[in-house]
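Methods — Computational structure assignment.
A single polypeptide chain was analysed. Its primary sequence is given first, followed by the predicted tertiary structure written as structure tokens.
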Amino acid sequence: MLHPCLRCGACCAHFRVAFHWSEAESFLGGEVPAELTAKLDPHRLVMRGTESKPVRCVALQGEVGVQASCGIYAQRPSVCREVAPSWEFGEASAQCDKARLVHGLPLLTPQDWIDPSGAGAPPLPRSA
């Protein structure tokens, strides 16, 4: 299944990605690459590229709405881990919907999780 986020990237090109500085401190167990961050205030860092307009996270790879992925997916900040795509867990996500609309992308629907190819029909069961 091709995850709908891998055709999107809108969140990474719309929202500021701010998080506690400890997430980039390896001695505290942080995994976010410090070189990809900038200081936002005494307690928070921000992913470079999301601190001002136009927003595009430095870790975003690919083209928004076509093919996109996070270059540090396994090391991404907690705020990125918390954003759920609309309907992945059975309900709409205001953040996902807002970012997609800003980039002119259609909102995700429950069908996107049943038939991620976008062909419009659920896959046929395989015979034994």
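Note: The first strand starts at residue 18 and ends at 20.
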